[in-house]
Design goal:
The protein is of the alpha/beta class. Helices cover 22% and strands 27% of the residues. The chain is built from 11 helices and 27 strands. The strands form 7 sheets. Strands 18-19-23-22-21-20-24 form a 7-stranded mixed barrel. A 7-stranded parallel β-sheet has the order 7-10-6-12-14-17-25, sandwiched between helices. Helix 10 links the parallel strand 21 and strand 22.
Amino acid sequence: MNAFKNEADKVHAEALNQVKSAVPNFVKQYDLYATLNGFTGVVTLEQLKDMLSLAGKGRIAQVYISKPYTVDIVGEPVSYESMQEIGVTPDMVNSAPLIGAPEAWNLGYTGSGTYVAVIDTGIDYTHENFGGYSSFPNAKIPYGYDFADGDNDPMDHNGHGTHVAGTIAGVGTAKFQDKDGNLVPLKGVAPDAKIIICKVFSDYGPYAYSADIVAAIEYLIQLKQNGVNVVAANMSLGSDKGFDDPTDPEQKAIKNGYLAGITFAISAGNNAYFEYALGPDYIGTNAEGKYTSYVKDPARVGAPGASRYAITVAAVNNQGTVLQGQKLSFDNDHVMYLTSGESPDPVAVFKKQPVTIVDTNSQFCPGKHASVRYDGKVVLIDRGGGCTFGEKVGEALAAGAIGVIIGNNDTDASLISMALSNAANTIPAVFIGGPDKLKLRSAINAAGGSLQGVFSDEIATGYAATDPNGMASFTSWGPAPNMAFKPTVAAPGVAIFSSTPGNQYATMQGT
């Protein structure tokens, strides 16, 4: 290896002199040996033409333009506090059992003795979920580098990398509620694995560039060659409509990493599985015409996940979410409610005093309900009927109601943070799950048509099951545009709860 490196260094030096002659301001960044034979660097846009003209001359076989990639996350992270506000606490506590992680732990497969690389936005190496160390490197995260900014501090200022690392190898310092109401540690899938953090997203921009990704893989191969047991690398990043391209620098690097014994788990992408491939004006014909090029393209798997040397991972639904809200108490029983966030707080308005609750037995849409007065009462209304939540609350307000409880469809236990509008936000409006709606309706009927209830700020919890067999609505899945059979596997990617910077936790979804 040393002889090869010495010879490669000579070639690199000759190639660099050649580059400097054509592009004097070229700034070299990283030497590459095991991934590609070459180096990475930076030029200005004005110098790009001169740089590309060097391909095939002297010591320079090829010149590649570094491509941008984004993190594969859908929407914005939702903090634990925000989840409490909207009544949802989805987490690794539920998704890890879905893939059989506890069974693997019981057999001794905890990741002990292995190193897993996270090629991402960095990591909060002081987080309690990684041991709570005060600095980097440390016992949990012994290796890493900031390839994007070229320094030794891979601190995460985005959050995505910390979340991914916690999902992979969080130690489970904090405990959260599972679907059975038990407090259990929030552990990653391989809690005893050590983490190698390769930061490829800069603190100063939204993209990771292929040059830095290749340099990160080079680093991992060198660690492997030096005896570090690097078993896998995670890349939750990409660009859509990727090809399995053996000439692509990142895919060459992934191949050589694979041949070195590193398994690459790479996102399939978050661009769904169906899109129009070309615009309707591409050949100047009507979109619905006989000869239109406005065709639907199901090939949506991203790059570099399309590589044949990668385990390409799509997302499926989680098996359920733990719900959290507040108690509406009545007759030694209660239901769980969620405030809308756009209407007055019922605890503040009613001051924890009993209110009269009646059932409209209606979806209470404008023009579709009986003209009944509900002066001074809180009314129970069904979801649906083709009108908005705001319209329902507005109708109740016009009928004299002082508060509204909207119940979900009968079998749907989930809670919704309702969007209201106009006058609808002048009285308290809360949402309850379908089973709780049926319970409250039964209690109202048993009480003769009206019931005394108290809106409390006491926390209530519940659980809403979801179908874990369904593909996530956002996930990309195959085949790849060149008909490669992708993705390789699918795993939970919806409502995953894990660590975020600052000793915080949040839910994210993606691949």
